Amino acid sequence: MSGENWPGEWLRGFLEVCVLQTLTRGPSYGYAIAAQLEEADLGNIQGGTLYPLLTRFERAGLVEPSWRTGEGGPARKYYRLTEAGRAEHAALVTRWSAFSEAVGRHLSSGSRPNNPEGARG
User: Fold this and answer.
1) Cα-to-chain-centroid distance, residue 68
2) Cα–Cα distance between 108 and 3 in angstroms, integer?
3) pLDDT tens for each residue of 69-102
């Protein structure tokens, strides 16, 4: 589903775990994180969405920032997962997997009426 424009409600639900997943590959900076998420067909994540999340991660001790000089450009703020960030990632992956399976089961259960025959809803 390349280029899919996912509903904002969905994006808010999965963005945290996906950003943490991206950072399990090693330290990265905002633009590169957004590019990796887009390459994964998760949509175009805007800076106004991504950077506040990274700031929350930083305040919670999930990531450790560092400034690195850019190649021919300005310095970039890189984010590295801390041990607490790795633990949070593992917990979120477990929870997300269980939730995703539950939704999948529900969606594949077929359509059945919610109300017994003759009941009004």
Assistant:
1) 24
2) 25
3) 877 888 999 999 999 999 999 999 999 999 999 9
